[in-house]
Amino acid sequence: MKSTIRDVAVMAGVSISTVSRVMNAPNSVVKHKREKVLEAIKALQYKPNGLARGLIYKKTNTLGVIIPDIQNPYYAGVIRGMEDASKALGYSIMICNTDRDEKRLFSYMQNLNEKRVDGILYTSDVVYPDFYEEIEAYRIPLVLVATHSLEYELPSVKINDEAAAYDAVKYLISLGHTSIGMISFELTDEIAGLPRYEGFQRALREYELEACVQQVAFAKHWHDDAYYAAERLLQQYPDITAIFTTSDEFAMGVLSYMHEKGIRVPEQMSVIGFDNIRMAQFTIPKLSTIAQPVYNMGYRAVEKLNALIKGEPDSTLREYLPHELIVRSSTGPQAARS
Amino acid sequence: MKSTIRDVAVMAGVSISTVSRVMNAPNSVVKHKREKVLEAIKALQYKPNGLARGLIYKKTNTLGVIIPDIQNPYYAGVIRGMEDASKALGYSIMICNTDRDEKRLFSYMQNLNEKRVDGILYTSDVVYPDFYEEIEAYRIPLVLVATHSLEYELPSVKINDEAAAYDAVKYLISLGHTSIGMISFELTDEIAGLPRYEGFQRALREYELEACVQQVAFAKHWHDDAYYAAERLLQQYPDITAIFTTSDEFAMGVLSYMHEKGIRVPEQMSVIGFDNIRMAQFTIPKLSTIAQPVYNMGYRAVEKLNALIKGEPDSTLREYLPHELIVRSSTGPQAARS
DNA sequence: AATTCCTTTGAAAAGCTTTTCGTGCACATT
DNA sequence: AATGTGCACGAAAAGCTTTTCAAAGGAATT
Predict the structure, then answer these.
(1) At a CB cut-off of 8 Å and minimum separation 6, what does A200 contact?
(2) Are A111 and B92 inside 8 Å of each other by CB?
(3) Residue A328 belongs to some domain of the structure
(4) Which residue is nearest to nucleotide D7 (CA to C1')?
(5) Which of residues 32-71 of B touch strand D (CB under 7 A)?
(6) Is the dihedral of CA B210, B215, B218, B219 positive or negative?
(7) Could you report how far apart the first and last alpha carbons of chain A are, in Å?
(8) Residues B146, B260 within the same domain
(9) For A79, which of B70, B138, B255 is closest by C-beta distance?
(10) What is the pLDDT of residue B78?
(11) Are residues A155 and A165 in the same domain?
């Protein structure tokens, strides 16, 4: 059995209150008793029980993190940022991986609520009405990460996806490409899908390449999907010389496809990714991409959540962090294929 | 403020005990009261406070997971296994990322102890004496994952690293390679370092290739290290035609180096990795590797920890799960380099 | 009709800590 | 010497739930 404050009190020959004071306001206890108590604490390996403490303080110094797919390397960076910020602000974090399954999501929400976490970080997914109702009911502070909601008044931290996609495509155009394709998440995805497609469209329109607007193939969240999407895309539009993908994993699937078909990157085909995951520097060729400040997003989200919990004022409700174009070797000037 | 059991009791016009009974032993309450209570629970959105519960039951249904590097994709698979098993057994998990920093490790240990987690899963790192003392003092059940300790009596789940390395090298030998190199973790790493090097040695000795035994370059945990290690290795031993690396990340660094130097894989150089991370199927060329059953290791570790917590009997203390040789396209028959 | 037994319920304790309140004592002040 | 001030410390309440114990009431048995 673990020792309790009572055990310490008995051993040190003082009351429970005195032991508590030694830990929380040491100066209010005379020296010789204080030392006795500290000795007893050491001897018994006493550590205060966080549950009892949480019950009194009505807070647990714990944050819940909801993630759709922990195997996606994108989140590793976000989590690191969250972790470092949590550590700095005195929280620990509890990670819940939903696998994009609504049942799991709600089961985890209930769990976090029962555990009385001080706040929740919700990443990437769209905020559905029934989910919003749930968090409203729980009254737990919540910050959206890499997603936002225009419908509800929820604080969020993300990049400007539309602008980022625009920049990626504009860069391809600046290299001279005139037939550009896209491998995109489904447009029903209001975060990583539609806005990036809109950015793609805007860049094309701006440079009078409207013809390309329909050169899109859709994929789910895996390399394999992107591989086959690339296949479909090139079969339908064989003139394409550059592809904008909405994730680095997609880009890797595309690189894989090109390699197998003997299409050289970047000589015959430029490929640009999105996210700048750690692997992106080690693909062959190294991947040009749009960097999301994942670490900072995670870090900032925790700071924002902390402000919310403490009731401190915070900057804008919906916060947008800057993205960055990273040019490596998977993109190059336009040149006729074959 | 969140509603408490008392609020429910008042609203339903019964005592606290009755409300508790409705939740934990519904049949012991007469129907009309039960229904009133259920109504009140719904109306007030009442959810029992896990802290108070934990205080009584002396358990929190939470497991702590200690991970050295969450950005390493290897752990994503392990975590998924842990997650699924936890869900099945009624636990939630709390992930702590130590970044291989001892201070962080101890700070997290203390935190998990205060939070009164029911058990701890400790991955990958060697069990140092002062760490062992700490967990002994806490008396929290613990299972080692992807690591073990021969010195201490700690339950563990991992593969047989020596045998796995042996199999990888033997496979290279079977392809006809006679000058084989290795990119290894430091030999001070008692888990992923030394045993795999011993497997490398054993295979070479068995096939009378002792000369290769010293063809090793060491790297830390990142692609970059492996890139430079490959450079050093080939400068020193230019005859090498096959390289065994102790992680897929290393292998990717090596592939990157070969690509840059114009050395074709697998025609001029075979490369075999270790772990079979998700990315391994999408490198160029696709990576041959030793698959660790990461998901199963995570899953099994939680089952084992659960048995320990519940005091149920469990199979052997140190458990070894089977690895598997995965042949893709980064390995091929020996052929002279240029 | 009296006793026993069972069902249903509420009061209270326990689990561990923090904090408020009040007491007792030492010292200072007049 | 008597009153006042302040410090150190212990008792007890509070935080929320579960569970034990006891009581009350009704049904069943003799």
Answers:
(1) A165, A166, A169, A182, A184, A213, A216, A244
(2) yes
(3) no
(4) A28
(5) 46, 48-49, 52-53, 55-57
(6) negative
(7) 75
(8) no
(9) B70
(10) 94
(11) no
* Residue B279: band (very low, low, confident or very high) from pLDDT cuts 50, 70, 90: confident
Q: Is residue B107 part of a domain?
A: yes
Give the whole-angstrom CA distance, residue A146 versus residue A135: 18
List pLDDT tens digits, range A295-305: 999 999 999 99
Q: How far apart are CA B265 and CA A2, in angstroms?
A: 58
Specify the higher pLDDT residue, B137 or A276. A276
Q: Is A132:A152 a contact under the CB 8 Å cutoff? A: yes
Same domain for A153 and A298?
yes
Neighbours of B225 (CB within 10 A): 18
Give B-chain residues touching A73 at CB under 8 angstroms: 71, 73, 76
Question: Both A170 and A280 in a single domain?
Answer: yes
A287: domain range? 161-291
| A335 falls within a domain | no
Contact B269, B338 (CB under 8 A): no
When CB atoms are compared, the residue of B54, B79, B279 closest to A51 is B54
Query: Strand order in B180-184's β-sheet?
Result: B216-218, B180-184, B242-245, B270-275, B288-291, B324-326
> Taking the C1' atom of D19, which residue's CA lies nearest?
B17
Q: For residue B18, what are its two tokens? A: 């009755």
* Residue A15 belongs to a domain: yes
| Angle between helix A16-24 and helix A31-44 axes, rounded to 10 deg | 90
